[in-house]
Amino acid sequence: MPVTQLPADQRFFADLLSGLVLNPQQLGRVWFASAPKTPPAGSLCLDLPRLDVVLRGEYGNKLEQAQRTLTQGEMLFIPPRAANLPLFTRSAMVLSMVFAPAWTGMAFYDCRSGGTPGPLRKIEIAHQQRGEGEAMLTALTLLSRSPQDQSIIQPLMLSFLHLCRKSVTTRADATPTRPQFLYQSMCNWIQDNYAQPLTREGVAGFFNITPNHLSRLFSQQGTMSFVEYLRWVRMAKARMILQKSPLSIGDVALRCGYPDGDYFSRVFRRQFGLTPGEYRARFQ
After folding, report:
1. Which pLDDT tens digit goes with each residue over 23-66?
2. What are 215-225's pLDDT values in tens digits?
3. All CATH 1.10.10.60 domain ranges in the chain, comma separated
4. Which residue stretches of 57-210 are H helix?
5. Cβ-count burial of 150 within 10 angstroms (0-12 exposed, 13-18 middle, 19+ buried)?
6. Tell me, which fold does domain 175-281 have in CATH?
7. 71 φ, ψ (degrees, to nearest 5)
């Protein structure tokens, strides 16, 4: 669906996201809000992940000293149950997004004189936040524990912004095409079956398509290849298990679809810069 055929508000946010993803060199650091025991008065704390992107000027999170002056291109990711208190001390334009299971909310703020302005434009895009989007949000939430890993975080965030742009350029009343439906079905199926010994050929056979057709669908409909998407799903699940369970590394590997614990550890370290044991130690 061409952007020019979208409703005016949807087209406005599509243009904002296009400006971000088509100029990745202008994107800066991704910051992460934390979860205070008791959210301060006036702060915003939801059970949903959120993202604030500074489009122009200076914007900040009053709750954390290091985040009080975010400049153009920098982003603040607010994981579920984390809190932020918007700080507009100078002129700023900000794109703010909230991600629910069935919709994405977007708001545009243009502050010219300080204070906390209301949104000038806002919209809700209905969709199911499963598959690739769910995997990316889970990964970003987990990476909030390692905010210094910007070489991992920034490419993931750019891929996520591409996905947001794709969702806002689709009309809510549009019937998914067969390729879109098939791609989303495969993402959902991988989310539910990641612990199995999945291969491109096996998944293609399950959906009665060729392996090359599967690769084309991931290339054309998503922002990751099949192998990359499967790895991100498994790694996100692995980090969750390592945080909460005393299982051995070998058992964690098996639960995430890796029969070889040593190979799992190598993949984990290549993905996150830490071994599974080093990552688990951070939560003990």
Report:
1. 999 999 999 999 887 878 888 888 889 999 999 999 999 999 99
2. 999 988 877 88
3. 175-281
4. 132-143, 150-168, 178-193, 200-206
5. middle
6. Arc Repressor Mutant, subunit A (1.10.10)
7. -110, 180
